[in-house]
Design goal:
The chain is an alpha/beta fold. It has helices at residues 29-41, 52-55, 59-69, 83-94, 108-112, 116-119, 133-144, 210-224, 239-251, 269-277, 292-299, 305-318, 335-348, 365-372, 378-385, 407-422, 425-435, 439-455; strands at residues 4-9, 13-15, 18-20, 46-51, 73-77, 102-106, 126-129, 152-154, 181-183, 186-187, 206-207, 227-230, 257-262, 280-288, 321-327, 352-356. It has two domains: 4-154, Cobalamin-binding domain (Rossmann fold, 3-Layer(aba) Sandwich); 179-358 and 400-423, pyruvate-formate lyase- activating enzyme. The strands form four sheets. The chain has a six-stranded parallel sheet, with helices on both faces. It has a six-stranded parallel sheet with strand order 9-12-13-14-15-16. Strands 2-3 form a two-stranded antiparallel ribbon. Strand 12, helix 9 (239-251) and strand 13 form a beta-alpha-beta unit.
């Protein structure tokens, strides 16, 4: 029997030994890619996945599963909001002197905060930053041969994405997640939005071939009833490739209902028309501010209000729904610019809105700005990781509050936008038409209604596709 590798998706945190996460509806696609890569290319190893929150495992149950599987090494992935869960789990495992397995840390947090591995070398043995498939497999193979490997390595970027096997979804309990299937057509983002740490993973844009993408869609088609969610950072970066994919979907007569993320300046009438014909029903856009100057100079999203309005109206023309994301409280923000954002949202006619406060994640320009203001630094990250700022991510991880504006004012405007946007006849009528045949969804709508009135926030789970 081949030695095993366990890849673990930790919760945001454990509370009274129960794993907590904001959303467990999306399968851990990054881990599925790494596990499938190992299982395809390695003669030495067999990889398994443990999604802690989905399985509802306590720390002791995770340890028992590890002992049962008896892996050669363990890999834990972590985004910044998950770092409490990753640290708690690794510390629990390493607290037993008889536990002698190496633990690797990977994922977005350590990719952006590389020094984290030095600060936590007592519980994590190695880190792989960026894209993990090739370098993680090479590293564990060397460990098996009793060679030494560096504590931290940059993951080698794979240029030909078709050489990465399709994610093997039999490695997870697929029934337990949202039926809509998550897929990725491309990797990498070359943009420089000031709040985003995605480019710390990879700036180099690569696409799978249309043939390879269609193979995966056909493979998952029956299970998800043709409902697909493209998780790409910016699906339409390569316009030609996306038009080819849309053509391929039509040629294969695949009846799809799909959604994606992209940018306002990367769509036009032609591509939206082709996307609609291929089954696109919803696009997520990050607009971030109603003020052009802030958007251009601070956020580095260099598109105008006129372009935004044009794209909304083109989506409307083609019957594609629009979800838009904004932040309130950018550096340089004033009460007037906040009003501009509110007015843009309320006049936009879009279908879904998400409003948040800028959050300084490592690897982003916003982190550097917030660090200069003393809002965040490595010591604060570690306090967060140790739960010394509080248990859980929401309300405990530092946020950016611009000079001259009070935190309460930002929360009030966020609530006011949500109430004005969602508590109106148009929104309720559209939800009612969608949800009329599902008692569960009607119940959710009622809960949402009261949550918006009482707290000014939606009770629905946050959308995953945040751009
Ligand atoms: S927000 Fe989107 S477009 Fe901007 S840098 Fe991040 S991934 Fe790229």
């Amino acid at each position: 029997m081949k030695p095993k590798i366990i890849l673990i998706n930790p919760p945001l945190h454990f509370s009274n030994n129960i794993p907590h996460s904001l959303d467990v509806s999306v399968p851990p696609l990054g881990l599925l890619y790494i596990a499938s890569y190992i299982n395809r290319y390695s003669p030495d190893f067999e990889a398994a996945i443990l999604d802690v929150t989905e399985a509802g495992l306590s720390l002791e149950q995770i340890r028992k599963d590890i002992d049962d599987i008896n892996p050669f090494v363990i890999g834990i992935t972590s985004m910044t909001p998950q770092i409490q869960g990753a640290v708690e789990l690794a510390r629990f495992l390493k607290s037993d002197p008889s536990f002698d397995r190496k633990i690797f840390l990977g994922g977005p947090h350590v990719s952006a905060d590389k020094d984290f591995i030095n600060r936590y070398k007592n519980i994590f043995d190695h880190a792989i930053t960026g894209e993990g498939e090739k370098t993680f497999l090479a590293s564990v193979t060397r460990l098996l041969k009793k060679e030494t490997i560096p504590v931290i390595q940059n993951g080698e970027v794979i240029d030909d994405l078709d050489t990465i096997p399709l994610p093997d979804r039999t490695l997870i309990n697929r029934q337990r997640y949202n039926k809509r299937e998550s897929v990725i057509f491309s990797r990498g983002c070359p943009y420089d939005c000031y709040y985003c740490s995605r480019p710390a993973i990879s700036r180099k844009v690569r696409y799978r071939s249309v043939y390879n993408m269609l193979e995966e869609i056909k493979q998952v088609y029956a299970f998800c009833d043709g409902k697909i969610s493209f998780q790409d950072d910016t699906l339409t970066m390569n316009r030609k490739r996306v038009l080819e994919l849309c053509g391929g979907i039509k040629n294969e007569s695949l009846k799809l209902d799909w959604e994606c993320n992209t940018r306002i300046d990367l769509v036009d009438d032609e591509i939206l028309g082709a996307m609609k014909k291929a089954g696109c029903s919803l696009i997520h856009f990050g607009v971030e501010s109603g003020n052009e100057l802030i958007r251009r100079e601070q956020i580095h999203k260099r598109f105008t209000n006129q372009q935004i309005e044009k794209v909304f109206s083109l989506c409307n023309k083609h019957g594609i729904k629009v979800a838009c994301y904004f932040m309130v409280g950018h550096p340089g923000e004033t009460k007037d610019t906040l009003e501009e954002t509110k007015n843009m949202i309320l006049k936009s006619g879009i279908d879904i809105v998400g409003v948040s406060i800028p959050t300084p994640f490592p690897g982003s320009e916003l982190y550097d700005i917030a660090e200069k203001k003393g809002i965040i630094n490595k010591a604060v990250i570690d306090l967060f990781a140790e739960k010394k700022l509080g248990e859980g991510y929401v309300g405990n991880y530092p946020i950016y509050i611009p000079e001259g504006i009070e935190k309460e004012y930002l929360f009030d405007i966020m609530k006011s936008i949500n109430r004005h946007f969602y508590l109106n006849f148009k929104t309720f009528w559209s939800r009612f038409k969608q949800d009329i045949f599902s008692l569960k969804r009607i119940r959710q709508d009622v809960t949402d209604f009261f949550s918006l009135i009482a707290q000014g926030v939606s009770s629905r789970k946050p959308y995953q596709n945040k751009k």
